[in-house]
Design brief:
By secondary structure, the chain is an alpha/beta fold. The chain is about 40% helix and about 10% strand. It is globular and about 65 Å long.
Length: about 400
């Protein structure tokens, strides 16, 4: 089931003029609402894997990626006062009325504490005595990347941590459940992050595997019907991701706004709470089967969109769709996770496979072999006419083997 199939979704579509409803429906069905219960289990599994790898080099310190605004408020700090851990705030501090996502991450981190894994409340003296080697920041979602970037900068204002980092004695890693393409790009430019590991891609309107004109139309729709400021969401992110209890403020206004003449999709303060009825109707909007034909049609591979469904294996359809996207532009490698509903690890494995077969280069450009493989995928399967069974029921034995 998709969001447009729910009762609330159907009423929300009535907000739009008839000529805009088809696009509004398509945009609504691109919205992903994941179950936090499932997300927590997958994030915990990934975090344990990263901790196990990091422990090979020494002690690991696991902390939540906190909002710097919440830290200032809880510590009564001036807006312009630089945040310095262990001086004017504690990385493991309890924040009154801790926001939902940070509270959930805090509970998750309790499940990974153990030998060689230090809690977020560990003082700097213990970090020194235990010879800290890896800091792992954990969060549920990364949209613009600004919040995590601010917290990383704050951590490294501590003279001791900054010194350890400059001598390459410690590594700083980030683990998240969902990361947008824009958020990943922002953190890649930060320079102080050694790795970013995540489960799935958080969709945004701009990162949808749609034609450029369709994305422009969707942005225009949000601007025309959105009310108030930041009609595309905080930072103009235009996010299409949330959990089945709440959505972030990076989601466009048309999904969150309320009014006497507007049937809301979400509810509560700021329109960020998912109605209980929707949760009951919606099993998981991200579990819909991948529409490989739509993915390749979006990059103008019309013949392939007709023949791709004849591939019996899902993995073969993923390979052909990936080749089609990379043929349009090697930069579309960042869209594979969202377009094909693959995890970060699955995308890496797929890209490695394409290189191993000689179909793409290390920079994700198609080789001549890759172009040929893509062309072969467009060909229709040959039809073999079935011959009628012989009428004579007696077994047939050849008179000669020649």
């Amino acid at each position: 089931m998709t969001l447009s199939d729910t009762e609330v979704g159907s009423l929300w579509l009535e907000n739009f003029a008839r000529e805009d409803r088809q696009l509004a429906r398509k945009l609504l069905d691109a919205f992903a609402l994941d179950s936090w219960t499932s997300a927590r289990a997958r994030l915990l599994d990934l975090l344990r894997t990263e901790i196990s790898t990091a422990q090979k080099t020494g002690t690991v310190w696991v902390i939540p990626a906190m909002d710097t605004g919440d830290i200032r408020s809880a510590n009564h700090l001036h807006q312009n006062e630089p945040l310095v851990p262990f001086e004017n705030f504690e990385p493991g501090m309890d924040i009154p009325s801790m926001p939902g996502s940070e509270g959930l991450i805090g509970h998750l981190l309790r499940d990974v504490q153990g030998k060689g894994v230090l809690s977020s409340a560990t003082p700097i003296s213990v970090l020194r005595n235990k010879k800290l080697r890896t800091i792992i920041l954990v969060t549920d979602t990364i949209e613009t990347g600004a919040q995590v970037a601010k917290y990383v900068r704050a951590l490294l204002r501590n003279p001791t941590l900054k010194s350890w980092r400059s001598f390459h004695w410690i590594e700083l890693k980030i683990v998240a459940y969902a990361v947008s393409r824009e958020g990943e790009k922002a953190l890649s430019h930060l320079g102080n992050v050694d790795s970013l590991r995540f489960i799935r891609r958080a969709p945004t309107i701009r990162s949808l595997p749609w034609p450029t004109d369709a994305i422009a139309d969707a942005i225009s729709l949000c601007r025309r019907y959105g009310r108030g400021s930041a009609v595309l969401g905080y930072g103009d992110q235009a996010s299409l991701f949330g959990f089945q209890d709440r959505v972030p403020n990076t989601v466009p206004r048309i999904f969150r706004q309320t009014g006497a003449d507007w049937a809301p999709l979400f509810e509560g303060r700021g329109g960020r709470l998912v109605p209980t009825g929707v949760i009951g109707e919606l099993l998981d909007s991200s579990e819909a089967p991948v529409a490989h034909d739509d993915v390749v049609a979006a990059v103008r591979q019309e013949r392939l969109s007709i023949s791709i469904h004849k591939q019996q294996r899902e993995s073969n359809r993923d390979i052909l769709a990936a080749l089609a996207l990379l043929r349009a532009s090697p930069e579309r490698a960042s869209l594979l996770g969202l377009a094909l509903d693959l995890t970060q690890a699955e995308v890496s494995a797929l890209l490695d496979y394409l290189v191993s077969q000689g179909w793409t280069s290390d920079s994700h450009s198609l080789t001549q072999s890759g172009i040929a493989e893509l062309a072969a995928g467009k060909r229709k399967l040959r039809r073999v006419e079935r011959r009628p069974s012989p009428v004579n029921p007696q077994p047939y034995y050849p008179e000669s083997l020649r």
